[in-house]
Amino acid sequence: MPPLFPDAASTMATRVDALYFFLLAISAFFGLLIAGLIVYFALKFHRRTAEQIGARIHGAMSLEIGWTVIPLMITMVLFVWGASVYFAMAYPPEETLNIYVVGKQWMWKFQHLDGQREINELHVPVGRAVKLITTSEDVIHDFFVPAFRIKADVIPGRYVTIWFQATKPGRYRLFCAEYCGTKHSGMIGEVVAMEPSEYQTWLGGGAAEGSLASAGAKLFQDLACNTCHRPDAQGRGPVLEGLFGKTVMLQSGETVTADEAYVRESILQPAARVTAGFQPIMPTFQGLVTEEQLLELVEYIKSLQALPQVQTR
Ligand code: CUA
After folding, report:
1. Which CATH architecture has domain 212-303?
2. DSSP category for residue 287
3. Which tens digit of pLDDT belongs to each residue from 78-137?
4. Is 141 in the pocket of ligand 1 (CB under 6 A)?
């Protein structure tokens, strides 16, 4: 017989399961209690002769309070508990291993920061928080790894992050959980959780294509971004060194945090949110760069943070 529940192979799995079993237990308890009482009352109070007429009851305060307060307390417990699990899932820890995921009809593409690329198979170390930054090339997909209890829509034009920390080595199934076309059911793969030492070996054995950031650096030159975005502040575009993660003042007077989504938007729709003090002269690169190239550029711009320190040495 197949197991009733999938493997519990991430730090979140036990927390999700505990909440889930609690919900099941509460539902089973009240379900049985109510069904049992219906049967019991039907037997005990059924009409025995034609003359029998039930007594009228005009309210019972203690009963009213009881069946209001008890469910209220149970739902409040569920609310607080559920919210704490939700926040733990929604906010990754500070230190994470970042991996990019691009969904596409009908495959999963993974890009490691060191340059390794995989399709429908993702290698990760156990005991380390992994953050997946996901996007889609075409339609909405959904990244679902039951053993890790993680599931999130992968949306075109947006970066959705998911995180997990695998707790035991093994191969775990990955599904697309959003109907995305003819071969949706074939959009499956495996997450391979490895001991850290094995993972290092695996990383070392990958293709020597260079890191994502270095691929981005090359692209940055090829697309001639560097003619306007210069580190010496003499260019027609903003300086990108040290930009990532900072707050940017916009022409409109608003501010924005320079995160992955903002960098992506600035490449595809440069006029959408222009940095204060600059002209909206940048051309769009919509259709000229793929989702994967966008990720390379994002990583390159992220990597520019450390540059000034290196230069002053
Ligand atoms: Cu991708 Cu369903």
Report:
1. Orthogonal Bundle (1.10)
2. T
3. 999 999 999 999 999 989 999 999 999 999 999 888 878 888 999 999 999 999 999 998
4. yes
- In short, whether 298's Cβ falls inside 6 Å of ligand 1 is no
| pTM score, whole prediction | 0.74
Helix/strand number for the chain, H first, E second: 7, 12
Per-residue pLDDT reduced to its tens digit, 25-58: 999 999 999 999 999 999 998 888 888 887 888 8
Is the C-beta atom of 177 inside 6 A of ligand 1?
no
Neighbours of 16 (CB within 10 A): 17
**How many angstroms separate the alpha carbon of residue 156 from the centre of ligand 1?**
12
Q: Is 9 in the pocket of ligand 1 (CB under 6 A)?
A: no
Ligand 1 contact via 101 beta carbon (within 6 Å): no
State the Cα–Cα distance between residues 17 and 24, nearest whole angstrom: 10
Determine the CATH number of domain 1-39+92-209: 2.60.40.420
Among 297, 291, 301, CA closest to 159: 291
Ligand 1 atom 1: residue of nearest CA? 141
- The residues spanned by each domain of the chain are 1-39+92-209, 212-303
3-state helix, strand, coil in the chain (%, to 5): 40, 20, 40
Residue 297 CB neighbours (<10 A)? 24
pLDDT at 207: 59
- Tell me the CA–centroid distance for residue 143 and ligand 1, in Å: 8
* CB of 104 closer than 6 angstroms to any ligand 1 atom: no
pLDDT at residue 313 is higher than 60: no
Cis previous bond, 106, omega within 30: yes
Per-residue model confidence (pLDDT) at position 68? 95
